Amino acid sequence: TTNYLKHVESMKSLPSGAGKISQLNAVILGEALASEEDDLVFPSDGFSRQALVPSPQKYLEMYKRSIEDPAGFWSDIASSEFYWKQRWGDHVYSENLDVRKGNIKIEWFKGGITNICYNCLDKNIDAGLGDKIALYWESNEPGFDATLTYSQLLGRVCQLANYLKSIGVRKGDAVIIYLPMLMELPIAMLACARIGAVHSVHVSSSFMQKRVVFAGFSAESLAQRIMDCKPKVVITCNAVKRGPKTIALKDIVDAALIESAKNGTSADVCLTYENQSALKRESTKWQEGRDIWWEDVIPKYPTTCDVEWVDAEDPLFLLYTSGSTGKPKGVLHTTGGYMVYTATTFKYAFDYKESDVYWCTADCGWITGHSYVSYGPMLNGATVVVYEGAPNYPDPGRCWDIVDKYKVTIFYTAPTLVRSLMRDGDEYVTRYSRKSLRVLGSVGEPINPSAWRWFFNVVGGSKCPISDTWWQTETGGFMITPLPGAWPQKPGSATFPFFGVQPVIVDEKGVEIEGECSGYLCVKSSWPGAFRTLYGDHERYETTYFKPFPGYYFTGDGCSRDRDGYHWLTGRVDDVINVSGHRIGTAEVESALVSHPRCAEAAVVGVEHEVKGQGIYAFVTLVDGVSYSEELRRSLVLTVRNQIGAFAAPDKIHWAPSLPKTRSGKIMRRILRKIASRQLDELGDTSTLAEPGVVDQLIALADC
Ligand code: ATP
Ligand code: MG
């Protein structure tokens, strides 16, 4: 057993059978959870009573089984909750995660024959959910919306699937999808899955962006993807409205196809959806022979389509990582394990109930949109809200307007949005009822405790547990996450591992550290949703993820574990700052800065320092209406000193009206490091930035 399991074992003396978390408090607090008493936030009795996992005991019991008998744990779920045309072979899984023992290989349910689209749609319809709303679609413009039931969705998916087959797309072929958050995006993904084609969704919008989109950058990276996977067809739309701005998506595809053609690769067909609210077809540039209007052809195809049955280990999709740290990696996921894992993590981490209305603000172009807009929820037969626009358009109250309109019960978003809405003021939140909400979620970066509290108190009215889900494109689904009814939470901690996941913290030499500690986060043994390779580059897969600490999957993230066993993500290990021998995670200093009432967002990097080795350089964005001053600088530094210690006090505060972020809204410290050390000619690849203009603005303010 793992150290972690030993740790939870030691907590076994807890009383059993009690759904009443608060009565357990005293016991838990007295025993194992003694450290930061004030920071514990308990689910209400009422919440825990109805929860799928109502108590720490229940979690421990299930977790223990998942680790001691992974084959039994996962095959029970796989066989009872999914449809398999044919059951898997002799082994539920087989794996080698140790480079010293040969090639890295992970397989789950090999030999099992299934189809994820069938499990999302046909199976739920057979179970009586045909008339249940599958998708609520909300347009960028308030007042425009649409719905699809599960049966209607199946019809649409089949029409597109039939069309794709008619133009020769076969099992294993790649299809590139470059669509905004229209219903056609999940439809396209499901249609590919139905016929065994491998989709590669390219993100078309920036999470928080209302205005700017840099078509040039998008075309370049799209061209690279086209050359990488050589699709027969690219599926796009003519244009999209994002906030007040119209973006001609098809122009970007045209440019990308010209670019890729120069290198000998092009798609035969560009299937284009006419997004009438954004641009009429008369105004769309068109290439006869290659371009096809979706609306002209797809509705002519039959609304039924036989499923292409695939092996559990056949590829489902290819997706590039966010590119926060460098050039994006083409992550490949297969069918069976991913299906079982996303559905199960969705169900437990959000305590899913059939009556829930679920909204995840992520774009389907990110892994979050794959696993937790499309597959995870739909495998559970959930009702999903798909929102086309920016979360702060036309004003910062839009999210809560949507929550009230659809009576959203589960709301899942990113810390960057939470911080931005917090900066905009409570009144945008409190003017809406939000009374339908029962579970909140966060993903993408560590959520600063002060942002966590605001999300919990103001948005959730102090009654909704927050699932702070730590995971990666590579992991397919949640890895460390609260189960909302089970554990008391600590603001800013992703808490405990999901079933079947064995996180370990290792030191520089790759030796596991036990108990309360801090180090490199790795994972021991595989889980069903793990990625199987980097597309076309298995060697890079092994080198990046399995060679740094032989025997483990290395996540690239730093993590500390407190004496209660809670996990705290400290940021990327490449970003750790070493000040006079103190190793400091970026997340800790940033959280201290953000706790200052006048600081809205912060990003911290290390710079060379003559005496200390490294010094701390902090970029800060201020709350609206506050101006930067010497007095504020001192007060910010003092906040960090008081909360962490003198060694963590920033040497330099750099006022940043906004920060460079990836299109999924993550801060790009790699670029900030270059600005901080004034290596301006070495900014590197900026193609994954949402707004490259931010960089010039920061450089201009460097010596303010
Ligand atoms: P790239 O790998 O291309 O540099 P990326 O790591 O940002 O980009 P993703 O796979 O989208 O690409 O993001 C996963 C990373 O996001 C994690 O490794 C972690 O650093 C961060 N992350 C995600 N969720 C959380 C969370 N709940 N708490 C802390 N960090 C998180
Ligand atoms: Mg990563």
Structural key phrases:
single chain; 704 residues; alpha/beta; seven-stranded mixed beta sheet; 30 strands; 20% strand; globular; binds adenosine-5'-triphosphate; binds magnesium ion
Q: Can you characterise this structure?
A:
- The chain is of the alpha/beta class.
- It is built from 23 helices and 30 strands.
- The protein has a seven-stranded mixed sheet with strand order 5-4-17-16-18-19-20, sandwiched between helices. A five-stranded parallel sheet has the order 7-6-8-11-12, with helices on both faces.
- The N and C termini lie far apart (55 Å).
- The relative contact order is 0.11.
Q: Note the beta-strand portion.
A: 15-25%
Number of E strands: 30
Tell me the overall shape: globular
Give the quaternary arrangement of the chains: single chain
Task: Reconstruct the topology from this structure.
Blueprint: H1 3-9, H2 21-30, H3 45-50, H4 56-68, H5 70-81, E1 93-96, E2 105-108, E3 113-114, H6 116-120, H7 122-129, E4 133-138, E5 145-149, H8 150-166, E6 174-178, H9 184-194, E7 198-201, H10 215-229, E8 233-237, E9 240-242, E10 245-247, H11 249-262, E11 269-273, E12 291-293, H12 294-297, E13 310-311, E14 315-320, E15 330-334, H13 336-349, E16 357-360, H14 367-379, E17 383-387, H15 398-406, E18 410-413, H16 415-424, H17 427-430, E19 439-442, H18 449-459, E20 466-468, E21 502-506, E22 517-524, E23 533-534, H19 538-545, E24 553-561, E25 567-572, E26 577-579, E27 582-584, H20 586-594, E28 599-609, E29 613-622, H21 630-643, E30 652-655, H22 669-676, H23 693-700
Parallel strand pairs: 4-17, 6-7, 6-8, 8-11, 11-12, 16-17, 16-18, 18-19, 19-20, 29-30
Antiparallel strand pairs: 1-2, 3-13, 4-5, 9-10, 14-15, 15-23, 21-22, 22-24, 24-25, 26-27, 28-29
Helix pairs in contact: 4-5, 8-9, 10-11, 13-14, 16-18
The structure holds adenosine-5'-triphosphate and magnesium ion (MG).
